[in-house]
Structures
1.
Amino acid sequence: MSLIKEQDYGTPARPGEATVSVEIDGKTVLVPEGTSVMRAASEAGIDIPKLCATDSLEPFGSCRLCLVDIDGRKGSPASCTTPVTPGMKVRTQTPKLAELRRGVMELYISDHPLDCLTCPTNGDCELQDMAGVVGLREVRYGFDGENHLDLPTDSSNPYFDYDASKCIACSRCVRACDEVQGTFALTLEGRGFATKIAAGAGGSFMESDCVSCGACVQACPTATLQERSVVELGMPTRSVLTTCAYCGVGCSFKAELRGDEVVRMVPYKDGKANEGHSCVKGRFAFGYASHPDRQLKPMVRERITDPWREVEWAEAIEHVGRRMLEIQAHHGAGAIGGITSSRCTNEEVYAVQKMVRAAFGNNNVDTCARVCHSPTGYGLKQTYGTSAGTQDFKSVEKADVILVIGANPTDAHPVFASRIKRRLRQGAKLIVADPRRIDLVRSPHIEAQHHLRLMPGTNVALINAMAHVVVTEGLVDREFVAERCEDFEEWERFISGPEHSPEAVEEITGVPAAEVRAATRLYASASNATIMYGLGVTEHSQGSTMVMGMANLAMATGNIGREGVGVNPLRGQNNVQGSCDMGSFPHELPGYRHVSDDAVRGVFETLWGRTLQSEPGLRIPNMFDAAIDGSFRALFVQGEDIVQSDPNTKHVTAALSALDLVVVQDLFLNETSKYAHVFLPGTSFLEKDGTFTNAERRINRVRPVMAPKTGKHEWQIVCEIAQAMGYPMKYDNAAQIMDEIAITTPTFAGVSFAKLDQVGSVQWPCNDKAPEGTPIMHIDGFVRGRGRFVDTVYVPTQERSTRKFPLILTTGRILSQYNVGAQTRRTGNTAWHPEDLLEMHPHDAEVRGVRDGDTVSLTSRVGETSLRVKIDDRMPVGVVYTTFHHPVTGANVVTTEHSDWATNCPEYKVTAVEVALRNPAPAPAAPAMAE
Amino acid sequence: MTTTHTPPHIRLANEISAQFQQRDPAAAAQEIAQHIRAFWDPRMRAKLIADAGAPGSGLDPLAVAAAALLPPATGG
């Protein structure tokens, strides 16, 4: 495939059904009202020269290159800022316009380096293109006058350079940072000839608020803001459309290559999840895929204390198959199991769960979603009938009130956060429920109307209080409830109880009752109110209860079943949704159908030729417990570092140490592989062929840009292990696996690689009833028929602060790093976050004699680690926070065995701890005294 | 109060039971049993059933009542 270049219409599309007919260069074109002359011309196939305009940004009208003549109007207006009007007649090419444009270009070029042949963007520069388009042949002013050619280059960012000498001050980068990303880190500094782009207060990009999303680089029409990889490797020559392998937003990218080498990842404008935007991880942090740490050959060892021995694939697969059978022969069919990965494709995950169910002969398959969003699966299925979010991302553009609970989108889902911020700048109201003052609470041009700063572990008390206000203040949407829901009366009696009032729970949550009442009125009174939530909801001992509590609130206020509303989990990893869809849970076959359902099991038994177990299997924490008690003896782990990511590390390592066989399939020798007997090298997303399903149920293609560096696709390895165990499992390609998923799983019945290649992406359910997919669910009725209200009793966690452990630790993610850091720690992203830090309120630090930068011990009743302190009043008093990106910190050494009552999802968000000074930071050097 | 030394199946059963304390005991036991039947591996259910009959198991009375409603565990 050659290099993909999307058409740039110059200005954004305008929504609306009313159309306007105009004539441009004799062609009649019909466009929506409000469309610019530039865009109308582009849609008619007429390109008007431009520099400061691009269709991801509002028109600015500064470059004066897009001038046109309009019948009946004086002068030559800028086509980008001039909307069409009915009957308008426009001419884009006249001798006068040509002369004006040449004059403009002449001025630009008179202050621009004439190094096109050696410039990294030679051939991909809009300034160069426009000089050609307008026919510029000479610069009459010469090049000796005052100019900017000696301005320095800022190379502080690890991924791109800012070469000020090439800047034409078009402001596209500034506007991209404002309008697309919403960070407002860049500005135009100075006036007239002295105008220049400045990052932050005028320092370097790294010193500024820049989040390195790449929007400015994307928008720059010259080589001013340029990926360093292009400078070093040259311009790419071909593109492959694929999907990002980081968070659950699932951004579409063009992988741009020279040969088999990825030069850069460019966000794809037609990608429905991101619409041309990106973040620092997806845009730049792909270098891990070719990092020398990658293990590319299989390895085997008898004992975990032995050195690894590299072997051929055949030996590794035979070894795994034989040992699995031997262990089953000695300890029973249920003594082995597997864990699927939310970082792998749907097809790879489907293959693993099929291997477990059909070749292993049990249901001991679970997925890393166990430790993040399993309560979402439980809670939304109980209330709405299916285990998925209700909306597409675009829906937030219609929301009037956005309630963000236990999520930090600017760090964990940055591209979707930009959508949220854009809607907030348009006037939507924001409620944030979070112990920390996350960036969304207050950032440029955004301020939450209410920050409900609750204590960790009290979500259910808060959501019940909000529901209490809805019910007792007459804010229920009675018509919606009567038509669409069931069990409302019983729930209404439950939630009306005085023990749920904001005043009654104020002491529990720490949130002033008046604030809860005001926030609830705002949510319930909005035309469209939507809930976005993350792991701050699910990773609690009441995670499932909280999900049902939010579902209740949305139903009671009628905020379900149309654009701008809904209950939306922000999935942590790229394929959390997909791995759950694919039957990774031990009680469910693909499509969330219980293993005890004879008819469903029959579908798979007929196709797979094996009798399947009707009893649920072990969940991940149960596997660890069963390993320690001796009934579980072998584990296949696909792409998850359970030692670093699962809670209570000591318990996890004790379990793994007790196993007879641990098989790890991963890119790198991670912490878990220290306890493994077999290492099977995995493939990066650049080598995978398959699909990911993002948080909005969107199934996107993952296309390989190169052959597997290991020689095998991961699903091939899994099939060969199954074959080594005597079960015939074979596919010729990944498309065949999706075809099998479609045959067996009604919500995927209309999905195929061919369809995705044709339409780009679809959101499940995709079947005969919805051949183009389902952006918004529960429009005419809930999946389960009627939405079900569930009583949500607040049961406090048993993890309490005590005199010995008086602080509450909560853990999470930071923008530049991703989960256990296996990928991002092997990229330039370490420039932003080289270590895990403990965020702490100044008061808690002071009473412990701790200063910023000191190293402290962090101790819970199950373990201890040490890390440096960052004092920050974004933390509430009594709560500390850290990330879990670095194995050297091992934050999960201190997290406990407490888990969600329904799903066993660990309670990462509440651990009682104490912090003590270990090593003071070196005192800053005293300033030298002048002699 | 459960601790790190409480067997996992007892800790889990008690945590589930805590969610149903406000319900009619008979209905609560039914719902708890249904939940355990749907989500627990048979070997965990077998342990629960065995411990439910033992004095001093530390099991919540609702969990004990639920265990009595569970069929004998098979498979797994």
Note: Chain B touches chain A at residues 1-2, 4, 8, 11-12, 15-16, 18-23, 35, 38-44, 73-76 (CB under 8 Å).
2.
Amino acid sequence: MIRSLTLALLLAASAPVLAGAQEPAPAPQEAPAPAAAPAQGDQGGLVVDVEGGISAPMPIAVPTMPTQAVVQTPAGSTDALGRQLSEIIANDLRNSGLFTPLPAAQLRSPTVPEVTAPTYDYWSTTGAQSLVQGFIRANGDGNLTVGCYLYDVAARTELTRQGFVVPPADWRRAAHKCADTIYARLTGEGPYFDSRVVYVSETGPKAKRIKRLAIMDQDGANHRFLTNGQSIVLTPRFAPNQQSIVYMSYVGKIPSIYVYDIGSGRQRLVVQNVATTFAPRFSPDGRYILFSMAQGGNTDIYRVSAQGGSPQRLTNSPGIDTGGSYSPDGSRIVFESDRSGGQQLYVMNADGSNQQRISFGGGRYATPVWSPRGDLIAFTKLAGNFRVGIMSPSGGGEKLLTDSWSDEGPSWSPNGRVVTFMRSGRGAGGAAQLWSVDLTGVNERRIPTPLGGSDPAWGPLRP
Amino acid sequence: MFKLNTGLILATAALAVAGCAKKRPEVLPPAPTAGPLQEVAPTGPSGPVGGEVVPGSNADFQRSVTSNTVLFGLDQYDIDPAARAILDTQAAWLQRYPDRRITIEGHCDERGTREYNLALGDRRANAAKNYLAARGVNASRMSVISYGSERPAATGSDEEAYAQNRRAVTIVLG
């Protein structure tokens, strides 16, 4: 039911966009332009530092987007959508922890002509350092066009602009794409707002908890359940093309890994066997699935074609080797092993050779996952509390991002600058919830879900 | 709650029976809590309660053995003397009913990460299986399944609950 989104770069950088009723034919492109170069030096000097040393979030104005004509669409009327779009953009930027959107009710909404010619005299009185304006228009073909513009208020210059054409059902994605454009331009980091999270929805008593696969946008919107809860399901992870999800299920009381096709809702067993298979994860190119198999009390890591077939064994230690995750180039795998006594992190080549321990701090280390940027590995550290942390792939620079009783199982945002994880409460009534934290460790927030949630996996940026 | 109530009823019934057989128990049993009722298996088919127990059934097994559950230490999977004594009674029952098949569930406490717990539960179930095999139970009669920390017997977040949850539970199939 998920329709692919056709994005077009509508607006040539120099062309006046809304000058007349007849726009020049746009040059459609499959994907938006690559992220702008880091916003440093010239062009107004607006810089947001993602990694740390942030003095204060940047004040930013995201006024309601005007519409050329109020038109009823399947997603609602265009004037209501203009208000909601600005709210979604402001919410994304606020959630990043790097921006403070000014209260929309206090902001004057621009007219359509003002979208491309901001009234800087007014905006300079609001305290906003940067300004996001845009418009929404219902097209004759039923699609919606959303324009998105970023201005430096003090320098009175335009920093970037993008246009998005979406079917009405995907209207929220236009807001996320706009927020991504703003974020990328002002931080120099990759975008991440137009992405989804798959996770395990939890309800019921702790001793007999009902677990269902569920999928939603990263901000919690468009939530839907994928499985009915009759069997325990665990550890879902997206395929790189986002068409399918690999996960573990107890269906038939044979705990095994399955691939769920999002489009058709069909599931297929990956490895035919009688042993327990678990901890699945796709390779970055989608051709392989890494997984663990427990046989006779020994657990090792294997690789199998995503289409099935004979698994190839990658580890061969008498201990528990599990939790494998590929480096983004597919050349290496980080995993956990208790071969030294307790759980520790190891890196090996993709063929299983050259296994090297990388974690040496006190306590145990588990659930390693390689950042999509390649520069960091997120993990769970077990030392009294369970905490989410990061370290370099060589084991240096360890930094713990959270400190709660039970934080576990990090998963990276598409740009490798935020992780989502599950936080569990104590006792019989203790529920698990989804949280996220950025690399500063400061911006920690709960991701809203209808019920409890565990095992979140953040998907790639949507095309 | 249903399981707990059933357990309490069973415990009460057992006390009543004991009271008939003997004049009075020499040592008062501990006050009933959610804890020590692990003899009532939280998983697997339960036999008739209060009615006749079919010989060779899981209910018969549970009535005949010291316990269907053996416990493990923190992050451990070795069969200690207490577990050996329990498994010996299980092996004896399984020798009496050589056509019965069993599955052994391996479980963990919640203070481990999810995937590691799945592997550790497999270790524990296999430790129990290997011990029974050494006691003469044919391995082909036994299957194992790890639930990690997905199905705790006790739902507290304290050492007493964790100790009960680090377990292997034997269930007679069919």
Note: Chain A has two domains: 56-187, 196-458.
